[in-house]
Amino acid sequence: MGGETSEFILSIIRVKSKKMPQKTIESKKTPLTYAQKLALISQKIRRGDQKRISEMTGYSPSYVSYVLNSVYSNQSIVNYAYKIMRPRK
After folding, report:
1. Domain span including residue 45
2. 51 vs 4: CA distance, rounded Å
3. Averaged pLDDT in 10-residue chunks for the chain of 89 residues
4. By the 8 A CB rule, do 74 and 59 touch?
């Protein structure tokens, strides 16, 4: 009886030890949400960025400040600010 049990256990170990081919999972990048972009902007913003964003978008510096501090919502300002901040490390 001992021989049959050990053979059975060895066969289970052999089956478990065989490497199964792994499927490659293709990840699709989803675009960042408005809140995620604001969080990234708040981490990477530098002195003078708000002025530059206001000049390029045509909004007043105070309105840009309100948008970046989540008082108001404006997609074009956030997208432009994100475009500036993205290459920064």
Report:
1. 31-89
2. 80
3. 67 59 70 93 93 96 96 96 87
4. yes
pLDDT at 29: 82
Look up the pTM and report it: 0.65
Is 68 within a domain? Answer: yes
Scanning 18-74, the segments in alpha helix (DSSP H) are 34-44, 49-57, 61-68
Reduced to 3 states (helix: H, G, I; strand: E, B; else coil), residue 53 is helix
Say if CB 77 and CB 68 are below 8 A apart: yes
How many angstroms separate the CA atoms of 51 and 33, rounded? 24
| Distance from C-alpha of 51 to C-alpha of 61, rounded to nearest angstrom | 6
Residue 67 located in a structural domain: yes
> Is residue 59 in some structural domain?
yes
Number of domains in the chain: 1
